[in-house]
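Checklist before submission:
- one chain only
- standard amino acids only
- sequence pasted in full

Submission:
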Amino acid sequence: MKKEIAPELLEKYLRGECTDEELARVYAWYDAFEEDEDLLSHLPADDKEQLKRELLERIKADIDTDTTAETEKGLRRFSFPKRNIFYLISVMAAVFIMALGILIYIQNKSLINQIPQWTDRVVVRNTSQSYIKQTLPDGSTVWLSPLSVMEYPKEFAKDKRDILMNGEAFFEVTKNPAHPFTIYSGSIVTRVWGTSFKVNASDKSPVSQVAVLTGKVSVSMPSSYMQSLKNFFGVHDHSNEVMLLPNQQAIYSKTNQSLQKSMLTDKAMILCWKRENVSFNNEPVKKVIEVLNRTFDVRITAADANIGQYRIKADFSDQNLADILEVLHLSMNLDYTVNNDYIELKKTRPN
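Returned file contents:
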């Protein structure tokens, strides 16, 4: 497009509320499109075919409505020559295509404006094979998984708490109903006021997942082009947002652009984040591994058999697995690597 135009003006045009001067501005903006630009080039082939069907049905419905109204008023219903019908259809199609171009333009603007931008920000990249524990400005805690990245402002805004995340992380969010906590990750948006949950959403992954341990969250996907088109044709679809309670999950498929809610069948993915009480009184690490595997439903192994003979005396109260692993790392010089629910303990290499 050669020119910019306020989305508010375009929305006003779609509602039929423009003045003559505003109509002239809209038409001038539309005429500035590149001649070779395809307004629907962003749509997949299947969506284009669906749009054609919806468009023809909408045009036919409008023609039938107009002629029926004339008949009900007692007016004579004329039989238009085919060329006039074709002309009417072409004119209406042109109007609809213009409206669709406006919708796509507004959609692009809204998606850009939806992603938070900060000048003073913190970027956390986990290039290790262990969890990174990070405390946010509001006191919330995040355990960032390996090969994941998170961005947030040094100070949250007065009315909201927004962060960007790519990869996998577990969140314990400080309760503050007046300041919603929002995570933008991959193709989904997760909103919460105070809870603990896990998000697995990467730009490169075809599937994103959110699982809730405690509290309540909403998961949504930004409105797609087809969602805007459905709204234009009067087809209301609320499948782009779900509410989750404990032991529930939401799975978003980029391929199908679908968001599904279900019960969490594989509870191991969040069980390791549940806070538990375990204690050891001069127990060998071999015994510690057995207890942790049973308590958190994970598979911890030792890379070296000698590690199993180490002994530890500790009382872990209200701790999750990541916190316990960090204590083992610091107190016994043991590193660990994480691969889903597989965890391997090994001796810390000297620097």
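Reviewer check: The CA atoms of residues 137 and 155 lie 6 Å apart.
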